[in-house]
Amino acid sequence: MENKTKFNWKLPFYGAAGFAFGSIVLIAITLFLEGVMGGYTTGAIALVSFAAWGAIGGASLGIGLFGFENKIKILYLTFAGMVGLPLGFASAVFLSGYLQGGGPHNIFPQIAVGFAFWLAIAGMFIGLGMKNMRYTIYLLFAGAVIGIILGVITGGVGISGGTGTAAGKGMPWFVHFIISGIIIGFSYGLVIAHATRKSADEDKDPKKWLFVVAVVAGLAVVLIINIFFPPEITEVGSGSYGKIITTNSFYVNMQYLPHAGFHPYTYIEYEKDGRMFEYIFYDQSMWLSLEWIKQNTEDDSIFLNWWDYGHHIRGYTNRDSIIYAPSADILRTTARQTWNPKSGDFSPHDRVIDAGYALLTSNSNETLRIMDKYNANYIYVQYSDLGKSWAIYEAVKDDVGGKLTFDASNSWQPQVTNEEIDEIQETIKDKDERNKLMNELYRKKQFEMLENTTLERALNKKEIEGLELVYFDKTSVIYKRI
Questions:
Q1: Does an H or E element contain 160, and which?
Q2: 393 and 288 part of one domain
Q3: CA–CA distances in Å: residue 264 to residues 155, 232, 279
Q4: Is the same domain home to 86 and 216?
Q5: How far apart are CA 370 and CA 349, in angstroms?
Q6: What's the pTM?
Q7: 426 belongs to a structural domain
Q8: Are residues 455 and 336 in the same domain?
Q9: CA 429 to each of CA 166, 251, 385, 418: distance values in angstroms, whole numbers, following the listed order
Q10: Among 348, 447, 450, 446, CA closest to 399
Q11: Domain-located, residue 253
Q12: Fewer CB atoms inside 10 A, N or C side of the chain?
C-alpha cells in the first residue's frame, strides 16, 4: 500500500508565479534581441526566449517541491523546463502547419492542436526532470488539456499583432503570455501536487520508460528531418520572374513566426536586376488582380501603391512600383517594426512620402503630379488599405500632414457612437447578423474619415479626374492614367 503525503498547496502558486515571471523575462529577451539583431532571426529569438521561460518555470516548481534543500533536483527541473518549453513550441509550429485545412482564417483547430502539442511535450519533459514515469504521463496529458483550453481562448479573443478571430484587435501579446504563464504554471503545479500525494518512489520499470523514450526519439527524428531535409515546398503560382511558394517547413515557419503564425508560410520569391528578393504573400486573393496586370498592362508599366504590394507587383507581373519597401524613417509604422534584408533595401524616404501623399490627398491633381513625377501609369489599391490608412498617415504626417483633409492624429479608430452600437445590439438578435452589421458600420465610418481622398474615391470606384477605372474585384481596384 502506497504512503500518502500531505497535499502541497503552495506548489501551484509557486508554479504560477514562476511561469508568470518567466513570461516577463521572455518578453524582455524578445524585445532586447529584436532590437540588437534587427528582428532577422526570429526563430532563434523565439527558442532562446522560450528556453528562459521554461527554465524559470521549471526552477519555480523545483523550489516549491523541494525548497532549497535539494539543489540537484531543482537543477533537473530547470533544465527540463529549459528544453521542454522551446522544443514543444517548435514542434507545435511544425505540426500545426500541416493542419491548415480551411485556410489561415480557420485557426481554431490549428491553434488548439498546436498548443496541446506544445504544453504536452513541455509537461512530459518536466516529468522526466522529476525522474518519475507516473508524473511524466500525468503532466503530458495535463499539458495537452491546458493547451487545448489556451488554444481555444487564443483563437477566440485574438492577440494584437498575431492571429485570431480578432487579429490585431484582441488581447495584447505580452498580456497573453503573462496570463498563459500563470495558467500553465498553476496547472503543472496542481498536477504535481496531486501526483506527489502518493509515494514518490522512482518508477524504474524499463517497459514504461520505453514509451517516453519512443516519444522523445520520434520527436527528435521528426525535427531533425524537417530542419535538415525540409518538407516539400509547393509552388502555387508563378509570374514573369518570380513564384509564390507555400511551405510547411519548421525552419521557415520559425524564421517568419511573427508573420506565419500557426499556418504554412506563403511568400513570393523573384529575381530583378540580378538580385533575389523574398517577401511574405499576405493575401492569396491578390492573384486575380496580379494575373490581370500580367495579361493586360504594358511590360514597362509602373504602379503607384503603398509599399506592401510592391514586391507582389514586381515579382509576379514583372512590372514596377514606385515603392516596394518602407523607408527606415517609417519602420515604426510597420507591424513588426523590423525589416528582412532578403526583401531588399529600404525605399528612399521622399518616395514613401510621395506615395503616401498621393493616396491620402483630396486633390487629384496632386496624385497625378506625383504619378507623372515617377512615370507611373497605374494606381493599385486594396480594401485592406482602409485599415492601413492610419499607418500611411503616421508615415507622412510630419512632412505633408498639413496638406491633408484626412486626420488620424487623435484616433485611427473610426468614431462609432454608443447610440449606433446600442441600436444594432438591441434590434438584431442573431449574433452573426449583428456582427455583420457592426463590421459594415465600422467600414462606413472608415470611408467617412477618408472621404474625398484618392484612396477613398478609388476604393469606392468613383470618377477621378485624369484616371480611368480599369479593374476591380473583391480585394483590389486598379486605375489607369489617361
A1: strand 159-160
A2: yes
A3: 17, 12, 14
A4: yes
A5: 14
A6: 0.54
A7: no
A8: yes
A9: 21, 46, 31, 18
A10: 348
A11: no
A12: N
Residue 169's domain comprises 10-228
Q: Are residues 193 and 307 in the same domain?
A: no
pLDDT of res. 477: 97
Cell numbers found for residue 57: 518555470
CA atoms within 13 A on the CB side of 477: 22
224 and 289 share one domain: no
Q: What's 298's DSSP letter? A: -
pLDDT digits (tens, 9 = 90+) for 324-345: 999 988 887 776 666 778 888 9
pLDDT digits (tens, 9 = 90+) for 164-206: 333 334 456 677 788 888 988 998 988 888 888 754 444 455 5
How far apart (Å, rounded) are the C-alpha atoms in residues 280 and 258? 11
Rounded to whole angstroms, the Cα distance separating 184 from 206 reads 29
Strands 243-247 and 265-272: antiparallel
Examine the fold and report which residue of 196, 228, 260 is the final residue of a domain before the chain moves on: 228
Task: List the grid coordinates of 107.
Answer: 485557426
- How far apart, in whole angstroms, are the C-alpha atoms of residue 427 and residue 436? 13
What is the full DSSP assignment across 423-442? HHHHH---HHHHHHHHHHHH
Are 349 and 475 part of one and the same domain? yes
Indicate if 189 and 298 belong to the same structural domain. no
Considering its fold, how many domains does the chain have in total? 2
Query: Which residues on adjacent β-strands are paired with residue 276?
Result: 271
Q: Which of 182, 211, 228 is the last residue of a domain?
A: 228
275-280 sheet: strands from edge to edge? 233-238, 243-247, 265-272, 275-280
Domain annotation covers residue 246 = no
Instruction: Give the neighbor-by-neighbor strand order of the sheet with 302-304.
Output: 320-321, 302-304, 378-382, 476-481, 467-472
The three cell numbers of residue 220 are: 527528435
User: What does the buried/exposed string (b/e) look like for 76-108 if buried means 16 or more CB atoms within 10 Å of the residue's CB?
Assistant: bbbbbbbbbbbbbbbbbbbbbbebbeeebeebb
